[in-house]
Design a protein that fits this description.
alpha/beta, Rossmann fold, 7-stranded mixed beta sheet, 11 helices, 7 strands
């Protein structure tokens, strides 16, 4: 049966596929530990570029939409900004609170891109890292414009795996075997066809940087299981994934470590 489009169903395909698992608020509930153990941070050049491009003064107000465990939020806080980490999943939000609670300028909010819970005209920059594919575009766009100040902008951010790298080619073989329809829907979103629709008449500025993250065997296994479409660790398929990733680590690692290479991309502008 062919996958229905968002236009056909009236709802984002990813949200529909993950409804049996509780939808966007529950997708990562069982994956928090793997996410914390394996996901990369963001390069310093990203923060420097956002500061300059978006004219962020010290103490500027930032909303990190889909903040997850706080990886992007942490970098903003370290640079003296106030950050509202908006995250719909309670377990992910708790992990961010554990990491960041008590730091000046930090607060966490149980909200979504479509309903952030933030005050109108209160935010200088909305950032969304690895989260845009979960947006219901029209409501999210309207919500962004509601909470942004008149000169505020939106930064859509990704750590893209470097797919020509032999490690990622091998990982994709594992993901293709076990990811099913959910992986297919995510790959469609990763083409970012929704970005022009989100920004409307505005043409966002685009930036990119090379980035790396070092993992050990446990980290690589966690990286595989942290993806939304991968099976549970304690399932039969999960045992197969762990075995395959272990062999992959033995193939590519040196001295017990492995460099996972990424391209960090940011698209920055104000929807119009």
């Amino acid at each position: 049966m062919p996958m229905q489009s968002q236009k056909q169903t009236g709802r984002p395909v990813l949200q529909t596929l993950f409804e049996p698992q509780g939808g966007v608020t529950r997708v990562f509930a069982a994956k928090v530990a793997d996410y914390v153990a394996s996901r990369p941070d963001y390069p310093a050049a990203l923060y420097e570029t956002l500061s300059a491009t978006c004219n962020l003064a010290p103490g500027a107000d930032i909303a990190d939409i889909g903040a997850g465990t706080g990886l992007l939020t942490q970098g903003f806080l370290q640079r003296g900004y106030n950050v509202a980490a908006v995250e719909p999943n309670a377990e992910m939000r708790a992990a961010a609170d554990h990491l960041l609670a008590g730091l000046p300028g930090y607060r966490s909010v149980g909200g979504t891109a479509e309903n952030t819970g933030l005050a109108s005209s209160s935010i200088d920059l909305i950032a969304a890292a690895q989260a845009f594919h979960w947006f219901d575009l029209e409501p999210a766009r309207a919500e962004c414009l509601r909470v942004l100040r008149p000169r505020g902008q939106v930064a859509l951010i990704w750590n893209d795996r470097l797919l020509t790298d032999p490690l990622h080619v091998a990982l994709d073989e594992i993901f293709a075997e076990h990811g099913g329809a959910k992986r297919g829907a995510l790959l469609t979103h990763e083409e970012r066809r929704g970005v022009p629709r989100f920004f409307g008449a505005a043409i966002p500025a685009e930036f990119s940087w090379r980035h790396e993250h070092v993992v050990n065997l446990d980290g690589l296994v966690s990286l595989a299981f942290s993806r939304s479409y991968m099976p549970a660790r304690d399932s039969e398929s999960g045992a197969r994934v762990a075995e395959q990733v272990g062999r992959l680590f033995d193939r590519f690692a040196q001295d017990g470590q492995l460099n996972v290479r990424y391209t960090t991309i940011a698209m920055v502008g104000r929807p119009a």
